[in-house]
Automatic annotation (TrEMBL):
Name assigned to this protein: Uncharacterized protein
Superkingdom in the source lineage: Bacteria
Amino acid sequence: MPKLGSSLIAGGILWTGGFAAYNNTVPKNIQAALEREGIPFIDSISDTNEKNRAYKAVYIDNKSNIKEDIAAIKQDTEDAAYSEIDTWCNQQLNAPYSWSTLEKNREKIINYCSDQRPKTVEGRLKRITEGIWIRDQEQDKEEAYKVIFAIYRYDDDFLRQINSVKGNGNDYDHSEDANTGYERLQKWCEEKLSSKVSLVEDENLYNYVFWWCKKLDHGATVRDKIKHDYPGWNEENKDWTKVKGYWQMTRQVYVWIDENSKRSINGSNINKDKYKTWCENTLKAKIYDSQIYQWKYLIAKSVCVEVKVQAVLGKYKNLKEAIANKDNTD
């Protein structure tokens, strides 16, 4: 009898040990099973914003078929659908492990829940930062593209990139009117956002898309851009006699203030109110209007700034420094 008892006890010890070994071998859930294969998951990302962007990138890369694969996805935008993907992934990953369950959904779980390299340029950029592409704006899309085209058309990289989608058209140069040129920029942005990461040969493409396919952080007028480029910039609104005095001998300025003065040796005969009218009209003009950017913009930022800044421009030779020292009379 003692021998039998000892055998039972020994058997119990052995069985308990075997159960522990079994527990240590069999994954507790689907996520643990796949992580053993070296597959990382978005759910493991600690930063909430980063995690949300990752799920949004998943939606962007799979929006054409994700609703067919996952019935729980009902929304039509990344900002609305990402939480549904998150919920679905949590349910799948936390499900108790069984080989049949894993094999049934393996492909979907890896595709939609794993922390993998995004498939598209847009998806990769979404992993880095939030933001709305001009393509997805509800209004003023054309104007946003026009502003970017007007400013960047002087950049050789910009022209080379957008000319790559010219089709049968001619190459654009810096003289191309933004009111027509913006359409090529729009086409370029739409093509590049959806292009495959695996086909990207130049890593600079991600910077280009980020710079040229999002609305700039200033408005469309000359005033908007000047105030953005030169913090603290305020326009003059009364002392136009002094303004005229500062610029009447500068031909590059007075011939724009009054086109009838092109044959004059100076601008002394131009009425001071011409400066007022010119500044008012130029500052409210769109940056993409004809002849505005760059030349009229460059003139307006100095000729239309408050007089006490103009008074020290000659001393500092730099508008930002002049603005910073406008109250320094030494």
